[in-house]
Amino acid sequence: MSSAVFLKLLAIFIVVTIGWLAGRAKFFGGGQTARSLSNAAFYLFAPALLFRTTARIDFAALPWTVILAYFMPVVGLLLALYGWRRTQTAGAKGAPAEPSVRAITATFGNTVQLGIPIALALFGEAGLSIHLAIVSLHALILLSLLTVLVELDLARAASRAQGGRSRLSTTLKLTVRHTLIHPVVLPVLVGMGWNLAGLPIPPAADEILSMLGQAVVPVCLVAIGMSLAHYGLQGSLRAAAGLTAAKLVAQPALVLAVGHFVFGLSGLPLTVIVMCAALPSGTNALMFSQRYGCQEAETTATLVLSTLAFVLTGPLWLALLSRL
Questions:
Q1: What is the gyration radius of the CA atoms in the chain, in angstroms?
Q2: Structural domains in the chain (count)
Q3: Any idea what the CATH number is for the domain that residue 305 is in?
Q4: Would the pTM count as exceeding 0.85?
Q5: Tens digit of pLDDT for each residue in 186-216?
Q6: Pick from 122, 6, 2, 130: nearest CA to 63
């Protein structure tokens, strides 16, 4: 593992530890503070980042074959995990958001604060350009899809609570309203419209959006540490281990199989997308779980465990890819 990657991992752990120490010392209160920090990221910083990213994407220049080779297996795994958990929890009492929260935890990677330095250090500018193409659509595709799924489940649960069996019209109405007026989907839609209209972002506004977007990473890492101090790892390790295995083993294996055998990729493009899929769980999973008040302890444990395990699994995937 290169020194740049090691330093980035070390920085992540140190910032999480700072959040953990702050949580243990009760400087800012209890677990509610971690949720407040996560809400600030979800409702303020992440929308700025999503709008700015979507408004600046050059869709014509994206390597669509490579992008499809990445997102087809990732979305497939996401839907499979979501469907499996929906089957397991059907008719059971509990949070209707649980299938979506577990799906995002097992599929949404740390593609920015860890993925970008890894791509640059290992593959240079050629590899970084491929990685950035995936990053530009990562939140747009996965968060938007998961938002639709979780809002649909919440609408079903609300309809059942009000009148027994859910009515299709009521469910669809609630889903559409809550999906469109949402801190993830709305800035993406506005950014997409801005992009298609060919409008530039004014320099002053771009500076503000950039500043707000840069706050997402440190705020989320501190929130992870504070959440870890509040919940601990005991009682969540078993579920976290399963989600970590799905993220670090199953997802890159699927991307490798689809990229190589379906799309015929090899060399640098295949290596970059597999390593992108092999990244540990990203901080957006915690924002998502705290937004819907579901599986927060489990998600926190998975973020920590998957980042620790990546120290071992990352080099193993690189060694395997070097033999292809």
A1: 19
A2: 1
A3: 1.20.1530.20
A4: no
A5: 887 888 889 889 999 999 999 999 999 888 7
A6: 130
